[in-house]
Design brief:
The chain is an alpha/beta fold and about 400 residues long. It has 4 domains: about 160 residues, Molybdenum Cofactor Biosythetic Enzyme, Chain A; about 60 residues, Molybdopterin biosynthesis moea protein, domain 2, CATH 3.90.105; about 80 residues, Molybdopterin biosynthesis moea protein, domain 3 (Molybdopterin biosynthesis moeA protein, domain 3), CATH 2.170.190; about 80 residues, Beta-clip. The protein is built from 7 helices and 28 strands. The strands form 8 sheets. It has a 6-stranded mixed sheet with strand order 7-4-6-5-9-8, with no helix packed on it. Helix 1 packs across helix 6 and helix 3 runs parallel beside helix 6. The structure holds ligand LQZAQKY5 and molybdate ion. It holds the Pfam family MoCF_biosynth. One of its GO terms (cellular component) is cytosol. Its cofactor is Mg(2+).
Length: about 400
């Protein structure tokens, strides 16, 4: 009995390890996952300071406006308050500068008129207005970023503000990629009839990079035992190993056999999906091995459904599965029951709804319809006919689908 799609993915996610921690310079932490919670070493802001360019005053002096105050000092951002503010006086102050003792409000420059050492306050003044108080953002010891948070620019800002020049993050996965097959030639050679360029190594490497991991290209294992053994053994030294092709029923499909010899325990082979049926997954110690079918479309789709979530999980991400959005089918779709089908589609937004039409020929040998697709409709295992107008689950494959052109 073939394993179901979601069960296969669950088995993978349950069995992959979380990689260890490394400390990296702050900027290199962007896009990584924080491995230890950040507790604030100090409060933010560190002192009461002005939120406006203007004048620090005593609100009580401005109970009835307009009123005129004498300017007795100036504090730029980065300056220090030298004098307390006496009744009837004001201090010129810039945004971010510390509030001088005695003041309890800041009047923005637009609400004043300055002339020859005095300032006229034109608008009513509330006590505490336009002051950012010490510790109002973050108190010392606060948990400001929990562990397992994806680090984006706001987290970078918070980490920087807390003095974190080096940041503990989960390690990037080093992912070995091995292509198999006698028909393959490396990029740079002109393929003759019967040979094809090893494109899977590149699509996989690009996909590995896209999830923030580091591809390690092992080249091509020819269809003989010795080559497979040598290169698969090398791949097992990485954090994860991906193979392409050599996993269906062909005479020379050696991948699973040699992996077993090398001590990889197979957790499943063959999944009830199309394309991608012959996918296998195994583990040696804590190293996951993904054996993906060789058809380039199947390779990419199985990477996206199985390997990407696994690598993200290994690198500490909590949310690893692409979300489904609802989309309306533009035309009738027929399928055989028994397998979840991934339908390559072109998605557009019409009146705020996703509408999907097939991107063309769905045979797994057809690469062009993958290039032309910006989404995958995920059709349920037992469905056989989905009439135009049906609502289906859809995964967006390109961020720009819902983005505006101008
Ligand atoms: N009797 C059966 N035959 C096949 C079955 C089956 O269940 N029973 N499954 C079919 C399905 S589905 C697929 S998918 C393929 C998968 O086969 P393999 O993973 O063993 O891959 P190959 O047969 O070696 O290659 C398939 C196809 O992909 C091309 N290829 C391979 N490697 C690369 C590469 N690195 N870059 C670009 N393209 C590559 C290869 O030339 C073939 O055209 O098996 C079916 N057969
Ligand atoms: O399932 Mo194969 O992976 O159809 O191309």
């Amino acid at each position: 009995m073939m394993i179901g799609f979601e069960e296969a993915r669950r088995l993978i996610l349950e069995n992959v390890p979380t990689l260890g921690i490394e400390r990296v310079p702050l900027l290199d932490a962007a896009g990584r996952v924080l491995a230890e919670a950040l507790k604030a070493p100090w409060e933010m802001p560190l002192c009461d300071n002005s939120a406006m360019d203007g004048f620090a005053v005593r609100a009580a002096d401005c109970a009835s406006v307009p009123t005129t105050l004498r300017i007795t000092g100036y504090i730029p951002a980065g300056g220090l308050p030298e004098l307390a503010v006496e009744p009837g006086c004001a201090i010129k102050i810039m945004t971010g500068a510390p509030i001088p003792p005695g003041c309890d409000a800041v009047v923005p420059v637009e609400e004043t008129e300055e002339s020859e050492g005095t300032v006229r306050i034109l608008e009513t003044v509330e006590p505490r207005q336009h002051i950012r108080f010490r510790g109002e953002d973050v108190a010392a010891g606060d948990l400001v970023i929990p562990a397992a948070t994806l680090i984006r620019p706001p987290e970078i800002s918070m980490l920087a503000s807390n003095g974190m020049a080096m940041v503990p993050v989960h390690r990037r996965a080093r992912v070995a990629i091995l292509s198999t097959g006698d028909e393959l030639v490396e990029l740079g050679r002109t393929p003759s009839s019967g040979s094809i360029i090893n494109s899977n190594a590149y699509s996989l490497a690009a996909a590995v990079r896209e999830c923030g991991a580091e591809p390690v290209l092992l080249g091509i294992a020819r269809d003989n035992h010795a080559d497979h053994r040598r290169l698969l053994a090398e791949g097992l030294n990485c954090d994860a190993l991906i193979t392409s092709a050599g996993v269906s029923a062909g005479d020379r499909d050696l991948v699973r056999e040699v992996l077993a010899e090398l001590g990889v325990e197979q957790l499943f082979w063959k999944v009830a999906i199309k394309p991608g049926g012959p996918t296998a997954f195994g583990i040696r110690e804590s190293t996951p091995v993904f054996s993906l079918p060789g058809n380039p479309v199947s390779t990419m789709i199985t990477f996206d459904q199985f390997v990407r979530p696994a690598l993200l999980r290994m690198m500490g991400h909590r949310r690893v599965i692409r979300p489904y959005v609802k989309a309306t089918l533009k035309e009738d779709v027929r399928k055989k029951p028994g397998k979840v089908n991934f339908l390559r589609v072109q998605v557009v937004v019409e009146k705020g709804r996703y509408v999907a039409s097939t991107s063309g020929d769905q045979h797994t040998g057809i690469l062009r319809t993958m290039v032309n697709a910006n989404g995958l409709a995920v059709l349920p295992r037992e469905a056989s006919f989905l009439p135009a107008g049906s609502e289906v689950d859809l995964q967006l494959l390109r961020d720009e689908v819902a983005m505006l052109e101008k």
